[in-house]
């Protein structure tokens, strides 16, 4: 049997209440984004407009040429119940209520009324006070009814599903996530959870084959605490669940109450629940997204022994130090392995872990010879690299110098050589299922997208790289 | 009397040993960067080349038309002593020895020999095994002898000075720092500290009027521990010193030994030293740079009561929760202040701290009316905003939708309106010396550079924003 959320995320036709030709309003913006990538039918409803965003307009729901699979409501609060009732009468099975002004401002009665209508007409809805859903795997293009545009880089599929009690945290981040290479596949903003709980959404993502990693932003559990914990445990057994919880402090709870009517609980209770459920805890939103990024691409490490390969000394020290502070072991290599390494690395480089190849632009040493020796020695469980070798830095040097001496720079040849080496690196990593993370401060390096498209996660700072590795090690060594 | 480091950072003429016409070598790259912004004289020395990077070449130091103020050495290890001695004989007063292969690979004798030469000829040098120095305040353009280009955005001056036992951590970050708006003024990579210690550099930055904030990357103190601590205490009394220490763990110390011959010590001893000295501790490199950014721009908070103004609910909850977790107080506003706020904010917004104005694009409410009411109530010591209001998001929406309906977007008018409001905001903040930090996930927002040029620090994630505010509060409430 199909989960009802699977149906909400895969409509063939959508009726939209709240779009107009005033582009500055939220509803119009959301319809605009939806229209841009959704290939199913969109029916805007409006009392006076003739066309909205180029689409023919219907006066009221009853005028629609067919019963749509989904209704999206971004109307002023006072109109919501009336339209939901009309939709129920018509037999529209699902709704997403974006409109705010219910439980979160204290109007519990109106919120209960929405639920009564849904029950009467056998409807299910998400919200109110949410920002909608995203499904890049939709059967009709991309379903994205948030205000923010999003698409995956071509040829990629998103295996991360996001679940959030904040609309902002799953929509404002979209453009950043796209640039960052974070493979979001589906997102649900649950809002006030009047009719659909975060527990139900979690259970849906547990069952969903397209979801391989779950990221969750939580302000507090509203009801059915035991069921939430059970679902969390069952889900975390099947796939990684990364959670960022914000609602435990006085100010956090106060803010949560007026945000989605969530009253956050004692942080230590939540922490215990997460720990016992095998959930990965993220201290903040950045960690939430960076950790899901790591889980969405990296192979599982079998232990905590880390091999470090860098192209500079400071990052080598920093990575080694941070690893040990996080409980990861930067093991000292055996004499045998050190002797083998000494034969291939430059004399100024260190043959012990971390291997710092210094300013030596030998791509095959960095991406092939050294990591192969280290990995196949069996002395480490995962590899962390610092540095890449794209030509962006050189290109910028040339631009900075007004193109002077640009003939001296072998930029094209360089890219070609690195790319050839990288292709062999990808094959080696994925054939051997080697857990690899890369740290690189130069986020404009032109090889980053190539690395990430080939399922090698790249992070900016050593701090986050090490934290992500720790999350991987902890989850897979449960 | 001028500090000798002030003279090293302000040469009128530089002799360069180690540049050639092979642009892929480090030395050539460093000379290339130097040449691009340094307006003093550069004399490349080379046994066979006729011209290097367009500059006339001299066969040996003795052929130079004048005694240069500074000598930069990027030669193979075995040649360094010979050239340093020749420079000493000639009377060149200062050198920067970039060449590696001394103490950090165990050759203590050769390193000691460098020192003997310097003492004999009354020279001072930085290094060996360093990456050089940067001085954007140089009397002749920008002095940057690292491999990486750098310049401040036009019209800005850098009040941050960096001091580092890693060359990478002050040079690889330059392009990022430029984009990030981090106002680096001077940097010294100390390398193995054979002749010039990190303590001397710190003391120089303490005395230097152009240095208002100091950032330091530390792997370990090599000698004169007491003097270092005294200098640190004296410096932190005068100006904020942010330190990131990496060398205390077994792996960190092992890596440090082979990096700059630093043997890191017990982290808890360092932590105690930092705490007692009133130094701001950064857990990692990202914090080091983000904290210096905050100190370089923000006004000092007088206490830990934070007022939060946001344009969305999730970030409001997250910021409030993280503030309280870090010991900052998101105070509940008085009834009086709440009543005044209620009169001006939308009905769905919360009138208590944090103020979430929701998806309401009223710039004057956000940047003027609300913060003025909160600040002048005297109920908070600092303000944190989430969200900006540049038109970048709208512009991207239009691009994403292939420019469809672009006439509907009032982009130009919008930018103009926000900019007018912002100008009044800047004046208000700086006249009243209000500590303000802004968090904004959309790092491509076109108003970020405008904010930062007007001395309002902007951070991406709430996590870092809150940590930076904590650092400010702790430092200024000593």
Folded structure, characterized:
2 copies of one chain form a homodimer. In chain A, the strands form 4 sheets. In chain A, strands 9-8-11-10-12-13-14 form a 7-stranded mixed beta sheet, sandwiched between helices. Chain A is built from 18 helices and 19 strands. Chain A has helices at residues 4-8, 26-37, 77-90, 108-121, 168-171, 174-180, 198-207, 225-238, 250-260, 267-277, 285-297, 313-325, 335-344, 363-376, 392-400, 411-431, 448-453, 462-476, and strands at residues 13-17, 41-45, 51-52, 55-56, 70-73, 94-97, 124-126, 133-135, 143-144, 160-164, 184-189, 213-218, 241-245, 280-281, 306-310, 355-356, 382-386, 436-439, 458-459. Chain A folds into 3 domains: 1-130, Rossmann fold (3-Layer(aba) Sandwich), CATH 3.40.50.720; 152-297, Succinyl-CoA synthetase domains (Rossmann fold, 3-Layer(aba) Sandwich), CATH 3.40.50; 300-476, Succinyl-CoA synthetase domains (Rossmann fold), CATH 3.40.50. The first copy, chain A, is elongated and about 80 Å long. In chain A, helix 7 (198-207) packs parallel to helix 8 (225-238) and helix 11 packs across helix 18 (462-476). Chain A is α/β, with parallel strands linked by helices and 478 residues long. The model of chain A has no long low-confidence stretch (mean pLDDT 93). Chain A starts with a helix and ends with a helix. The relative contact order of chain A is 0.08.
């Amino acid at each position: 049997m199909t989960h009802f959320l699977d149906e909400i995320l895969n409509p063939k036709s959508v009726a939209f209440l709240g779009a107009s030709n005033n582009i500055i309003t939220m509803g119009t913006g959301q319809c605009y984004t939806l229209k841009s990538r959704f290939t199913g039918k969109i029916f805007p409803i409006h009392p006076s407009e003739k066309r909205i965003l180029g689409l023919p307009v219907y006066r009221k729901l009853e005028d629609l040429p067919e019963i749509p699979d989904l209704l999206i409501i971004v109307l002023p609060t006072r109109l919501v119940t009336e339209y939901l009732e009309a939709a129920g009468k018509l037999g529209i099975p699902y709704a997403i209520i974006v409109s705010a002004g219910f439980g979160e401002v204290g109007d519990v009665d109106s919120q209960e009324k929405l639920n009564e209508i849904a029950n009467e007409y056998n409807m299910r809805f998400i919200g109110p006070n949410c920002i909608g859903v995203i499904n890049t795997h939709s059967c009709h293009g991309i379903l994205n009814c948030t205000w923010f545009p999003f698409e995956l880089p071509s040829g990629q599929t998103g295996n991360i599903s996001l679940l959030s009690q904040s609309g902002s945290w799953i929509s404002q981040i979209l453009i950043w996530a796209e640039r960052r290479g974070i493979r979001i596949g589906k997102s649900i903003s649950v809002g006030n959870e009047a009719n659909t709980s975060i527990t139900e959404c979690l259970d849906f993502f547990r069952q969903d084959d397209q979801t391989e990693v779950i990221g969750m932003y939580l302000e507090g559990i509203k009801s059915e605490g035991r069921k939430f914990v059970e679902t969390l445990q069952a889900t975390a057994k099947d796939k990684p669940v990364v959670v960022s919880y914000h609602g435990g402090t006085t100010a956090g709870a106060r803010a949560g109450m007026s945000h989605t009517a969530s009253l956050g609980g004692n942080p230590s209770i939540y922490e215990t629940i997460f720990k016992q459920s095998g959930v990965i805890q993220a201290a903040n939103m950045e960690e939430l997204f960076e950790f899901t990024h790591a889980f969405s691409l990296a192979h599982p490490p079998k232990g905590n022994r880390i091999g470090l390969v860098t192209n500079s000394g400071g990052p080598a020290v920093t990575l080694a130090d941070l690893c040990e502070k996080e409980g990861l072991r930067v093991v000292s290599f055996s004499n045998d392995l050190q002797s083998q390494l000494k034969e291939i690395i430059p004399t100024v480089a260190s043959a012990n872990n971390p291997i710092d190849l210094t300013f030596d632009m030998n791509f095959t040493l960095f991406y092939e010879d050294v990591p192969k020796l280290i990995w196949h020695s069996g002395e480490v469980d995962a590899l962390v690299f610092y540095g890449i070798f794209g030509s962006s830095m050189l290109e910028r040097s040339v631009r900075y110098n007004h193109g002077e001496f640009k003939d001296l720079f072998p930029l094209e040849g360089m890219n070609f050589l690195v790319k050839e080496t990288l292709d062999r690196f990808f094959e080696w990593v994925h054939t051997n299922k080697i857990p690899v993370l890369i740290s690189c401060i130069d986020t404009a390096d032109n090889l980053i997208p190539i690395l990430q498209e080939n399922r090698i996660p790249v992070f900016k700072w050593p701090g986050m790289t090490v934290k992500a590795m720790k999350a991987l090690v902890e989850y897979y060594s449960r």
